[in-house]
## 1
Amino acid sequence: MDEAGRGPWAGPVVAAAVILTTRRPLAVRIDDSKRLSGRQRLAAFPVILRHAHVGIGVVPADAVDTVNIRQATLQAMRQAVERLGIAPDVVLVDGNDPPPLPVPCWPIVGGDQVSYPIACASIIAKVSRDALMVFAHRLFPEYGFDRHKGYGTAEHLALLRAHGPSPIHRMTFEPVQLLRNAFPD
């Protein structure tokens, strides 16, 4: 299991759980999603879906603001495991903060770089979150979510300063919190 979207200023946090149904390596490059290009992630995504049980959990920005990013991430992870369709015997989790689940969880720091199934989950989570942000761009095109995906880039900051926060911004994250006061409701 892995997640995408802990750090962005906008959008959901997304987790993916993957149980591979084959022991053979997949016919695409599998690695930590951050070490793959967008094209490589998009090529791997359908291949993983064909050769795995996949569960995806999504917690929106307003819930991130309500419960905090850690709790939102744990919620998304729990949702992902619940949506697998089959119960795992054990869950390998990227990082050091596993969610409370009724099965053993083994946290692995840097797991997306050393565990093939975690790397697959990393790709599923990242591609899924990116697709949600491209959809968000259609709703709020003035923010450029299709380019920066809600992450804290110079472009995003400039657009945030120009337009104020959107409904999918995380109001408790800086600089959104600081700029929110400049754009009263």
## 2
Amino acid sequence: MKVIRTKTYEEMSYEAAKLLAAQIVLRPDCVLGLATGSTPIGTYDQLVKWYEEGNLDFSAVRSVNLDEYCGLDGENDQSYRYFMDHHLFNRVNIDKANTNVPNGKAVDPEAEGARYDELIASLGGVDIQVLGIGYDGHIGFNEPGPAFIKPTHMVELDPSTIEANARFFASADDVPRQAITMGMGGIMQARKILLIANGAGKKDILMKSLYGPITPEVPASLLQLHPDLTVICAVDE
């Protein structure tokens, strides 16, 4: 495990973008595992800047996203497909056919989870997986619980997650109660993992996740077992 502490969100974003850019340069047809939320926006902005300057080429890049809300399609401005289009895909020369997000409108979420895992396997797996971390230690939408769930699956969102995400919606009542998320098994199979965390409020859960007991009650704690984990954080005030 490698931990890089930065003083600002901008520094954190820059350092994270450097790792992703290096992966793209070293393997132009790499598979990027991508995350949503406020934390990676600066990272994506930096990647777009380098693309606009002619230093990055996304034309052969493939991507898979961690999760998607159930009930939302890509046209909904609160969906994670929309988020990725707005913050990255529409701003670089990536082939949209090579970008993948779980289908939040799937009639059978279990079948959708199996399809998504088969898709990732068909791509040869994820080269580098970007993760954020929730205040309760969730990654993707893998919430605290009695066991680690390995495959992509549907999850009932914890009230704390709904509350944290309510700022993106008109009200907490509008936040979907379910989501489809890559499971811990799929996340841990990525060849590299990049965990980014911002804000003093994430400091305690980051310490529990990286140095505390490995337990499904803190899903991110499983990352301690990954052979190539880089953590970039700006959590000190």
